[in-house]
Write a structure and sequence with these properties.
Chain lengths: 366, 366
């Protein structure tokens, strides 16, 4: 059936949800005109060599997992085949082809999608790799699509930290797509899994990429878009994440970069959370109270360890010219002895220095 | 009195608000112990050579404006000297020293502060200059602090488009601070004004910079922080803008840049609006319905002008390999004639091309 029904077919997903996969298959091969009205599924089923697909899969160590199997990622069961009027359905897959030493089972709570533009900038590639590496270090699984640019950088970053990473493809797992990533896909299969809804032999198509993206969104508790132009296809995974109620995160970048414009637009107008590092991703996508990390704060300033009055003395010193103790006492309202004592304490902290013509601030590192 | 009371003194501002400036001055010089408890103001008043300050100001063409004067920026009258319990007051200035060919009167509704780090990156300097230039083109006035880095870039960008720009200093207007910006300050005075609460002769101090920033926030309908490290002093103007109920905007930048970390933090956790160009600044800071501009959209895609079914044919084509008309009809469910007609229309739009072994997509510019 996975060789017959196009990934993301709502009609098939709803039939499976209502009557089960076997009944759906029977409806297809028996030519049930109420279900397969134009007969397209029936005609495709006639042309499928099921035994051939299975032997090809076995040969390449590609296994098929479906709901109920030990390897099945149960997080996908939350994808809604039907929804109340007004909302959109996100057809769950009825099975997945899987290749690799890892397992997709148990994925979800601590998994995040890291996706973005194929035509990524060097900035985006660096950020995606660093983010994925840091997420792997924090124990998170990185899921992506093995495409050029951001996707590949995310997989590589996670593997650099020996973290598991999974790739979801829009074609059969016998096809390395893109071809230049054949070795990358082998490496991913060596530590995680490569996943597809499509059986061996099926080619990538634009509609299949879009359907594939709902699996990437569905397998994870959030999607991070590292770089995307306005209306870029790279945002399709984010759209699915929204429909699935998963967290959508975007990485900011230079406003001069078109490849960050889609990220900024989503932060501004579509409710995406701005994230700048792995801790913030975990904070947004993590289960509340379990993975939450504290908000970033600036480094402690040298001035922080002085009393408010001593800091005030410091703040009342001219920015660039020396000042005498009596001048400073006059303008600050503090007594001469207090100003002098404060200056000596501040000097001990390296904040001020005494010169021939008075006291001056030592420039702070900005 | 401006030579005696420190800028931002809440005590003085409240007394002026309640009893007027003249009564406040009398309380100071008569040694009213209920008002000037430690006698600091009185002692400073004794040391001030009022006539000398005024003649020095006249010599340098520095004028003093106060509420009620034609030149007074009435937007400052909305700064609250007193607030209900729990909220903080933002002491309004009781007068400003002004130098330059422009006037601060009428500033506010279409004025925006563009501020940020002194240790700006080349990215920040470029963005600040471009933003200010575009704001000037849209008829907006750019206010800043004439400091190194972002401030100077903002003034220069506005003046490059012959837009008015005003600088607010933390010292007397006889002092060029920073010294290297003496020429910049002259240029600003040639088209806008340079403003200070402090009379000629007063030196810049850290506390005066902080007080100065409330004037920058108060003169404008919003503050844009272009670059700021976490807890940077450059965020002080943003803090004042929040207290004044003005819009706070931040420009995103590379997550690898510490000078953008403060901006990202404010967008994430302090409710600042992310802005990436002048139109978005006008959108956020402009009066609703008057200056609002539309949200950005991606450029029209070549595919947009085809019918949904034709786009669907395109989307079902393999991403990298040619496909025959009959294959495509089979997998898409459309008839052979319809697929063929759609392909010819798509070819006319440059989206697909016919080859010896079938039809293939022409790569789209990303």
């Amino acid at each position: 059936m996975s060789a017959v029904a196009e990934p993301g077919s709502l009609k098939v997903a709803q039939r499976v949800a209502n009557g089960g996969a076997e009944a759906t298959w029977n409806a297809i091969i028996q030519g049930d005109a109420r279900f397969d009205r134009d007969g397209v599924l029936g005609r495709r089923a006639e042309g499928v060599d099921g035994a051939g697909v299975l032997s090809r899969a076995a040969e390449l160590e590609i296994r098929f997992v479906c709901p109920g199997d030990a390897d099945w990622p149960t997080v996908l069961d939350t994808m809604p085949a039907t929804l109340d009027a007004g909302a959109e359905a996100v057809p769950p897959p009825f099975g997945l082809w899987v290749r690799g030493r890892g397992s997709p089972a148990g994925i979800g709570p601590q998994a995040v999608a890291v996706v973005g533009a194929r035509a990524a900038t060097s900035y985006g590639v660096r950020v995606a790799a660093d983010l994925a590496a840091d997420l792997a270090t924090l124990g998170w699984t990185v899921v992506s699509g093995a495409a050029y640019g951001i996707d590949a950088a995310a997989h590589r970053g996670a593997m650099a930290m020996a973290g598991p990473t999974h790739a979801v493809l829009a074609c059969g797992l016998d096809i390395a797509y893109p071809r230049a990533h054949a070795e990358l896909l082998e490496r991913i299969a060596g530590c995680g899994v490569v996943i597809s809804e499509l059986p061996p032999g099926m080619k990538p198509m634009r509609s299949r990429f879009i359907a594939r993206n709902r699996i990437i969104a569905g397998l994870t508790s959030g999607t991070v878009v590292v770089e995307a132009a306005l209306r870029s296809g790279a945002l399709s995974t984010a759209h699915w994440a929204v429909k699935l109620g998963r967290e959508v995160m975007v990485v900011p970048g230079p406003v001069t970069s078109q490849q960050s414009a889609g990220c900024h637009e989503w932060a501004r107008n579509k409710g995406a959370t701005l994230v700048t590092d792995a801790a913030e991703v975990v904070d947004a996508a993590g289960r509340l109270g379990v993975d939450a990390v504290s908000a970033p704060v600036g480094e402690n300033r040298p001035l922080d360890r002085f009393r408010p009055e001593e800091r005030d003395v410091y703040e009342r010193m001219p920015a660039y010219a020396p000042v005498t103790v009596s001048e400073l006492a006059e303008c600050s309202g503090y007594s001469v002895p207090f100003v002098e004592a404060s200056l000596r304490k501040l000097a001990g902290g390296g904040l001020v220095a005494e010169h021939d013509d008075g006291w001056a601030r030592v420039p702070l590192a900005v």
